[in-house]
Amino acid sequence: MLIRGTVTDADGVPIEWATVWFAGGDHPTPDIAAVTDASGAFTLTAPAPGTYRVGCRAEAHGQVEVTVDVTEDVDLTITLPRDTPSA
Fold it and tell me: What is the mean pLDDT of the chain?
């Protein structure tokens, strides 16, 4: 089963070179990551049906985790916040 998706910023602009990975789930997950292309697209392969946490980060953006229920191929949009400089 595939988790296909797009990573965007808060304005909906695709983010190239974002890293997307399995952060955990119902089943052991492969220790692999996908990197988004110029259109912000990525693909991960889920090992089995279940619930997974998917992590994502990119330079100049924050890191997020989203929960995905996988029973068949899934389309997902991940929105990354902008990093805010520390004072």
Answer: 93
